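User: Quick sanity check before I run a bigger batch. Here is a single chain. Can you write out its predicted 3D structure?
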Amino acid sequence: MALDTPAWVRDAIFYQIFPDRFAASARVVKPGPLEPWDSPPTVHGFKGGDLLGVVEHLDHLERLGINAIYFNPIFQSASNHRYHTYDYLAVDPLLGGDAALRELLEAAHARGVRVVLDGVFNHASRGFWPFHHVMETGRSSPYRDWFYLNDADLEAGRQLRAYPEETLRGPLDVSELSEERLGSRSLETLGYRAWWNLPALPKLNVDNPHLREYLLGVAEHWLDVGIDGWRLDVAEEIEDSFWREFRDRVKARNPEAYIVAEIWEEKPEYLRGDMYDALMNYPLGSAIISFAAGRHLDMRVVAQQFVLNVSVRAEDAATFARRLERNLTVYDPDVLAVQLNLLDSHDTPRLLSLCGGDKASVRLATLMLMTLPGAPSIYYGDEIGLAGEMDPGCRAAFPWDQSAWDRELLAFFQAATGLRHANPVLRHGATETLSAEGSVHAFRRHDGNSSVVVAVNAGDEARGVELRVPALRDRPFIREALAGSAAGPAAPSTTFDADGCLTLDVPARDAIVLRVA
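Assistant: Done. Predicted structure follows.
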């Protein structure tokens, strides 16, 4: 049975924006001093990016080929990343407030750009007004059951200890520790369960019917304002029944709303039509980077992120093909078509830094991202060569002085997104591996009468590759020009033998893309 996933996502190219760091508008008056825009980012500092800054730079996104934006959280918060929410029903005034979001939605939708917001429903912040109510009134607060509180402390009249002098977090071994175990420690020490033992993040009790209704109302409210979907933070740490009800309520408001969960592993059991539409497809990104960067990987940087540390390593084409085949077959085709495919994010080092500064690796990985099934997502600044290691390095301010841009890399990104937009088969077609030997991986996207062949050579020497595609033997090819390609736009030598085997010479650290005319 076909699953009901949003049709528009199949044709989307996303751009992930960290709102404080993308662009600042003079129309949003800031209340006090900010970090200099061009200074290195810090953990707690604010640069002053806002939503009207995004409005004023939609031309850049349009030229890049973007038709969907995923925003990190935008609601009122005391953190620059805004995962510490204190009012879910108000856009942060540092971002321009509710009026700025409405202007952004109107401007984006006028250009055919969809907008997806980040929903942080697992935990709130110490500033969340119901939590503050409990801090002030203790056991008398009607909001006490919105959180996991130490009942003995409450009954004894002891206050919540939300601002401890010492950190509760030590070195984490994620193979041994769980959020639940850490949460029990905070319950004893702080008087409430804190997410991953972070005092700033009280865990929300979604079993409470009043909190549950409040959060579901939040989801409905912003859909009514005009957003096009939700990205769900740490979705696996909230019980499934909540997400099933969430889906029902969201889809009742907008059947085409996109629901994508932050889950880092393969989890097909969550994508059966009753919870999410898609996951953030980190496994595909890890496989692509492992192959495209290979020996150029900076393993010191890779090791900074605990998931990438076990999923990214130099691999040959055959190993990549096995990982790709797994990723293509573990999900229903209607889910696969709307998976959020990404190479980096605010939670990882930037792609260029993972690849040791090697721009050829970035180009190859990006080309593969744009030509494989699913909705590709570009992390803001990757297109102009922004580098950065783990937080806060990966969250630097976008340099709007174009003298700092890598213009050749930007041209490549534009060519790659243009290739995807110009060829519907790259968004809707089936995928077939044609060759996976040594440093060369080649695959075909096909749909009825259309075909695109992609051959990627991640090695340091030119390689010949033989591709058996007898169905295309009598069909003329057009070579797609890719900015920055060493091979240039000239027509390749396409020779078939009697068995329909196509021979290509793929330059080192480069790719060939052929479209059936």
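DSSP finds 18 helices and 18 strands in the chain.

User: Great, the batch can go ahead then.
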